[in-house]
Predict the 3D structure of the following.
Amino acid sequence: MSNTNKQAKFTAPGMSNESAEKTIAALDNRMVALIDLQLTLKHIHWNVVGPNFIGVHEMLDPQVEAVREMTDTIAERIATLGGIPVGTPKSIVDRRTWNEYSLGKGLVTEHLGALDKVYNGINADHRKAIETVSDLDPVSEDMLISQLADLEQFQWFVRAHIESATGELTQ
């Protein structure tokens, strides 16, 4: 029998079980997205080629590490609220609501154009999660806001590589 669907019979003091369940669901969605993001970033790191390769290659590892920290923070918050963070590969694939990253080996501009779209989804969904938890759990809200600030900066780093001198994204 699997323990992945069990939930503790407690949550954080002062928080209702209903609020905790809604918060856990929002955080679980973000955890899945961030696990997927860190793997996608590493995939790009390994497969990016062409002019500016080294700059992009070296830009991505700190993003991977930061996203891993974000994932860990969210997983631990889920556990704190009485939930069970499930991060096994099949469970991640089963719970994600977006398509697999489709590029293999590719030019810097191709990967960064695709990564910009990934960040569009990640960051928009982080904003939605912030809205969801804002009245439920200020601790989770604060955590997500802090993460979004970093995620938006990472997207800016990506966009700086594919932005024209007139401010247009070239991909």
Remarks:
- Residues 17-47 form the longest helix (31 residues).
